[in-house]
Structure formats: structure tokens, C-alpha cells
Amino acid sequence: AGCGDDGPSTEEATAELCDARDDLGDEIAGTDRLDPRDVDELNDAREELADDVDELSSAGQEVAESAWEDVERATEQLQEAVGSIDADTSFREAADRLGSAQDALTEAWDNLVSNVDCPS
Length: 120
What we know:
By secondary structure, this protein is an all-alpha fold. It contains 3 helices and no strands. Helix 1 runs antiparallel to helix 2 and helix 2 runs antiparallel to helix 3. It is rod-shaped and about 80 Å long.
């Protein structure tokens, strides 16, 4: 996590998303056991579904924001690496700095654009 970053890491945000997905899945699976004559039970289920959908939506936004922040950080690191290279920098040093920064940016970008992979 970067300095001043209040949000969860991408891994933490993904775990929250997976938990929210599982909670909503459990709630949906339980709808087949609802008694259509029990208005209180139906209202509770409706509220629980709405809460779970909100939680899943929030978790999804956290994942997207966290992944984007990773890309921004990696981009800044690449810019710093490029800026740190001057006429006195050896070819090997320059290649190492750029290679590490490029790898970090590629990984962050791939994570941003890939599908969220939740464990079963």
C-alpha cells in the first residue's frame, strides 16, 4: 500500500468481493425455502437480498479502485525510473530500473483488465 492510502489492497478487496459474492449466493439459494404465506419472512429476505447486493456492489467498486491505484502507483514508479536515468547511468543500471518498473506496471495493468478470479 502506498503512503496515505486508506483503502484495502487489491488482494483484500478481492477477498471482500468473493465473500460478498458468496453471501449473496447463499441468500439466493435460500429463496427456494421461503414460505410465500409468511410476509415477515419474505420482507426479511427482501431486505437481506438488497443488503447483499449493496455489499457486492461496494466490494466490486473497491476492487476496481484498488486495481486502478496499483496501476497509478506502477506508472509513477516507471516515470521515476525513467527520470532517474541520466548520462552517468550505465546501460545495465538503466535496463534494470526500467525492467523492474515495466514489469510492475504490466502486472498491475493485467490485474486491472483481467476478470476477478474468486476461489471456489
